[in-house]
Amino acid sequence: MKTEIRSGHVVALCGGVGGAKLALGLYRVLDPGQLSVIVNTGDDFDHLGLRISPDLDTVLYTLGGVADPDRGWGRVEETWNFLDAFGRLGGETWFRLGDRDLATHVSRTQWLCAGGRLGEFADRASRALGIAARILPMSDDRVRTVVETAEGDLPFQHYFVRRRCEPAVKAIRFDGAAKATPAPGVLDVLSHGNVRAIVICPSNPYLSVDPILAVPGLRGALANGAPVIAVSPIVGGQAVKGPTAKIMHELGIAVNTQAIAAHYRGLIDALVIDEADAADRATTDVPIMVTRTMMRTLEDRERLARDVAAFAEQFARQPIAARKAGGAR
Amino acid sequence: MKTEIRSGHVVALCGGVGGAKLALGLYRVLDPGQLSVIVNTGDDFDHLGLRISPDLDTVLYTLGGVADPDRGWGRVEETWNFLDAFGRLGGETWFRLGDRDLATHVSRTQWLCAGGRLGEFADRASRALGIAARILPMSDDRVRTVVETAEGDLPFQHYFVRRRCEPAVKAIRFDGAAKATPAPGVLDVLSHGNVRAIVICPSNPYLSVDPILAVPGLRGALANGAPVIAVSPIVGGQAVKGPTAKIMHELGIAVNTQAIAAHYRGLIDALVIDEADAADRATTDVPIMVTRTMMRTLEDRERLARDVAAFAEQFARQPIAARKAGGAR
């Protein structure tokens, strides 16, 4: 799927559930075809002989309107008869594969085994779900997030789902990233002159955004054009969801706005934080926009998307050199 | 799973639905552990990246009590959400894979890809389903039934399911059979001195039983010990189900008791036919037993199983040499 990148196009970088919420907001407030989403594939893994791309699927299901609104992952109106029967046969059931969800994995595995690329599959699935946005894996190459813990190295899903993030994190690495190349389309959309904003969604910076930035060429492409706006995953000095706070703590990073700003320093033009953290504005050395970042309702998602797009406008007419000089302004 | 072959053990050879009915009857009337079933695997195929063994699964589901009683194939209380979602993604849906059924295929594929044998998987699945009979694939090796038709060669499932047996059959061959070996356990159960009967179930002789007999060593093993009793799939000059009559017609074979007797001549000690064909007794050159072979109810299955076992008794005390001399008696 070739998306025409018209004036006003927005590119979002995201991981799974949290990031996909803002991606949905952007999708709903932008004109059709005006959004591209670059998705983390470091969480991908092989399981039961299937190639599973959790974040890519969460974005596909969310934008395709088939995500489960309550569970936060997987498909709506899902059934679990495969997993039930599989468990009775002695199979592993720790990774909850729903019957409808399984169709995506079987289809993707078939596509990849036949020599197809992951990005092509994302295009096919997007079309099948009627999504008028381009959804791009960060890379077609195999990048695997490995969590180095007190109990040894764990593949991401084993750490995240099977062990429920219990082992203490010592470090996070992205196997294969150094040799990976951005998926076709990724550099195009990032560096295209018609892009008005690049949005780093409020996904976990260390587990969901860093793998994207670890793909050679991708970080540099962010500095090529449009303003880069990150939305902090911290609200009121706490992580909104998932293991972000626990991981930051275990990695010796303070759970606050300053840490997120420091993490993205030199990469972003501005950081969007929640009203609850408004006081952090004075002590943070990147431009800050304060709004409500907690996304409980669909309206929250749309409102935050509009706010982020509007904030990006403030940076759109500055010369790139000025915007990318880094440091405090 | 090692089954102790005690005195009075019965071995059944069968294909899918029709044969599995009698296998179930035998399973219910024999003492636990007294039945072994050798199943056709010529229908097996690779589909959507999965290793599918239709006949093996039909026998497993039937004896495991989870077969759908109305549809004649697949699992009871089945749902189709995988296939529905898969079709929406543009995937092939001609082979109806149910959500629960899929668990068997994913599990088997995983097992085989890890280097396991098909027979081991059948043992595992049997245990999981609580089956007190040994279910053996005819071979762990890849044997593929190919239907040579007026439209060219068709893999069995493509002929049978996708094309609904429409193309005219010119010949049937079993690719890989010549190099296949019987699965571990097959020759043991066939030639064991404690076996009181070998029963060829009323499966399609050309499509379901011939592949079994095509595995080198298997045909010979039938002549090693117990009486071999075949149940004709013909009732009243018609095939009970499936494409048997159409195929026999296309292959230039008359649809009657004599043709079935001729097909199994030299291999069987007796042929069991339906009351509707009782008149064929006089014109058939193998010993004939007449009973009701149509199996509509569970009672039908059990009664036919008892009849077949009783008939085998008549041959049990004859010297093997006398029984295997072949020809008319």
What order do the helices and strands come in, and which of them pair?
Two copies of one chain form a homodimer.
Chain A: E1 9-14, H1 17-29, E2 35-39, E3 45-47, E4 50-52, H2 54-63, H3 81-88, H4 99-113, H5 118-128, E5 134-137, E6 144-149, E7 152-155, H6 156-162, E8 169-175, H7 186-191, E9 195-200, H8 205-213, H9 218-222, E10 228-231, E11 234-235, E12 238-239, H10 244-250, H11 257-264, E13 270-274, E14 288-291, H12 298-316, H13 320-323
Parallel strand pairs in A: 1-2, 1-9, 2-5, 9-10, 10-13, 13-14
Antiparallel strand pairs in A: 3-4, 6-7, 6-8, 11-12
Helix pairs in contact in A: 1-2, 1-12
Could you explain how this protein is built, in words?
The structure is a homodimer of 329-residue chains. Helix content of chain A is 37%, strand content 19%. In chain A, helix 1 packs parallel to helix 2 and helix 1 (17-29) packs across helix 12 (298-316). Chain A has a seven-stranded parallel beta sheet with strand order 5-2-1-9-10-13-14, sandwiched between helices. In chain A, strands 7-6-8 form a three-stranded antiparallel beta sheet. Chain A has a two-stranded antiparallel sheet with strand order 3-4. With 329 residues, chain A is an alpha/beta fold. Chain A starts with 8 loop residues before the first strand and ends in a 6-residue tail after the last helix. Chain A has a domain at 9-43 and 137-146 and 175-323: CofD-like domains (Rossmann fold), CATH 3.40.50. In chain A, helix 1 (17-29) links the parallel strand 1 and strand 2. Chains A and B meet through helix 3, helix 4 and helix 5 of A and helix 3, helix 4 and helix 5 of B.
